[in-house]
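Quick one, probably user error.
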């Protein structure tokens, strides 16, 4: 299975690593260039218990680190959205989620794929 993970924080990167470790081809997307640069050197950008070991075993199935939603749509059949949803000053946590879904939608519109699965794992407030 070719799957993408959007948001490589303390939830996204461990989950992406576990899926890759299970034999899935995984494409990882984040908008934070520093995180992408660290991961492209095969280093972990933060501490999470046992993540270094799982990430190390998963490296061969992680096909890339990117900030391109075009690649997500072209190279995978499923995207798991795990962006940061901590409440900001506005009290609304949905901005990053809406941005991710919108970026996927724009690229799907121009794609010839018959289907694409989006899994929203980020927490959003009811009504958003």
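Nope, works fine. Designed sequence:
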């Amino acid at each position: 299975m070719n799957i993408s993970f959007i948001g490589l924080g303390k939830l996204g990167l461990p989950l992406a690593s576990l899926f890759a470790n299970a034999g899935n081809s995984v494409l990882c997307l984040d908008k934070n260039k520093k995180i992408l640069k660290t991961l492209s050197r095969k280093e972990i950008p933060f501490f999470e218990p046992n993540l270094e070991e799982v990430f190390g075993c998963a490296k061969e199935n992680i096909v890339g680190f990117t900030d391109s939603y075009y690649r997500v749509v072209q190279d995978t059949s499923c995207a798991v959205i795990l962006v940061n949803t901590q409440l900001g000053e506005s009290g609304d946590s949905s901005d990053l989620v809406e941005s991710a879904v919108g970026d996927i939608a724009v690229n799907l519109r121009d794609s010839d794929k018959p289907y694409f699965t989006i899994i929203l794992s980020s927490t959003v407030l009811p009504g958003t």
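The longest helix spans residues 95-109.
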